[in-house]
Backbone:
């Protein structure tokens, strides 16, 4: 019995030593990002990037061309006309959303058919699956740099309401969206998935949305939008340069694993899990 106890203790010590060595050898999320090769990054196309200019600075947003092409087309048209110039971010709900556009005014913008879900005849392969059975869908992960979810067959795919998600507001009618956009600024309201079209995400500048005046403020004009245009409308020298880690890359796969089980010595316990909405895609501006 004593010999067995000694053997068990030694085995435990060896296993712990191996685990410690493995943890020490693993790269941290920061190290993975810093060491990612050039081919694991992509530059955001200027024709897909919205530049929302607020009094405190710019918010850069990428539109999802694969899942929501009609919304991409609508925002392209509106941005080209400077539709949002001098309108406002008229709705702010703490920890929820910031919404902008013409508000209750008649905009003469035709309604748009919803794109809640992308339907495909065959399974649409995700770049990476982060969660199986995430509570709101059969699976969730990333596609083209966007957090998405799917049905079990992979024939229905939609962008999720993670923080920074860019969506099109609507009324009670399903196809009632026109031009009123919103950005999720707080905890992910995933219960809205498949009820509203999410057509993009914030790349940079969330701090400017968080600094908007709250309801009840006497400041005038109230959260004025200086303008919102496509990056491609700006002179070449003024177009923001934004690169995003490819979500189909080895670096991003390694980053997901490092976020599930943080290798830094500070962490005593690791869950071997990360919520898809907590998995931020590394983004670098000006590089």
Residues:
């Amino acid at each position: 019995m004593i010999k067995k106890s000694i053997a068990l203790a030694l085995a435990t010590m060896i296993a712990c030593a191996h685990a410690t060595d493995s943890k020490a050898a693993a790269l941290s999320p920061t190290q993975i990002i810093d060491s990612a090769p050039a081919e694991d990054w992509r530059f955001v196309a200027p024709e897909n990037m919205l530049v929302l200019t607020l009094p405190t600075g710019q918010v850069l947003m990428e539109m999802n061309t694969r899942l929501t092409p009609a919304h991409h087309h609508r925002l392209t048209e509106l941005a080209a006309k400077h539709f949002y110039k001098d309108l406002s971010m008229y709705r702010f709900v703490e920890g929820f959303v910031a919404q902008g556009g013409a508000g209750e005014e008649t905009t003469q913008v035709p309604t748009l058919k919803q794109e809640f879900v992308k339907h495909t005849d065959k399974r649409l392969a995700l770049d990476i699956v982060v969660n199986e059975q995430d509570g709101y869908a059969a699976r969730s992960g990333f596609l083209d740099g966007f957090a998405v979810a799917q049905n079990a067959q992979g024939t229905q795919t939609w962008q999720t309401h993670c923080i920074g998600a860019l969506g099109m507001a609507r009324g009670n009618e399903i196809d009632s969206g026109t031009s009123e956009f919103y950005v999720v600024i707080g905890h992910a309201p995933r219960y809205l998935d498949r009820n509203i079209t999410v057509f993009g995400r914030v790349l940079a500048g969330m701090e400017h949305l968080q600094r908007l005046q709250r309801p009840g403020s006497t400041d005038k004009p109230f959260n004025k939008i200086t303008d919102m245009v496509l990056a491609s409308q700006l002179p070449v020298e003024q177009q923001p340069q934004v690169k995003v880690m490819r979500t189909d890359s080895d670096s991003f796969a390694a980053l997901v694993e490092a976020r599930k089980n943080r290798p830094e010595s500070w962490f005593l316990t690791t869950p071997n899990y990360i919520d898809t909405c907590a998995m931020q895609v590394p983004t670098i501006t000006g590089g």
Observations:
- Residues 1-21 have pLDDT under 50 and may be disordered.
- The CA atoms of residues 250 and 280 lie 16 Å apart.
- The helical segments are 2-25, 29-35, 69-80, 206-210, 250-260.
- The chain is about 20% helix and 25% strand.
